[in-house]
Write a structure and sequence with these properties.
Largest sheet: none
Order of helices and strands: HHHHHHHHH
Helix content: over 70%
Radius of gyration: 24 Å
Oligomer: single chain
Length: 182
Amino acid sequence: MKKKHIIPCLAMLALLFANISLAQRIRLEGTDNILAALRSSKFDTLLAALRKIEDKKIVGAIPILEERIWQQDPDMQEFFLRTLWKLGSPNTLALARAYIDTANGFSSIRPMPRDPLRMKVLAIDILFSYGDYATASLVFELLERDKPYVDPFARNLLASIARSVPNFSEKAKNLLVEISAK
């Protein structure tokens, strides 16, 4: 009687292991496809891959992102940088600083020049998350330059500056009050 039960049990175990193996292989193939999409030159494909990498927390993408970040246009560089930040890449701070340092060249990119100051401010919150407030003055520069328009990203950084940058704390608080009054 026991032999009759052993064969079906072994068959069930074999099926279970086959299904687990297939599921792992499909998941790995999915990851491979996502990582392969990082080699695309299409904006939509890259953006979709970055979202999947963030959602699935594919830390294996870090070396590829770091290798390819400077081959992208400025907008995609920022998206790569944000993904590296969310994945916890140890090089994020250095890459964010380098991105800000190279942003002045963004205005000469054709066919679609970018605003270097705005692009710098987009990366500043990454620096702030590491306690690096050296570029805080750029937030004020953007807000002053674009008056009466208030850049929402720059506005959101004012609270961090008010809390963490003594030299600019009062100025940030005053601007927040002024912006709120509008």
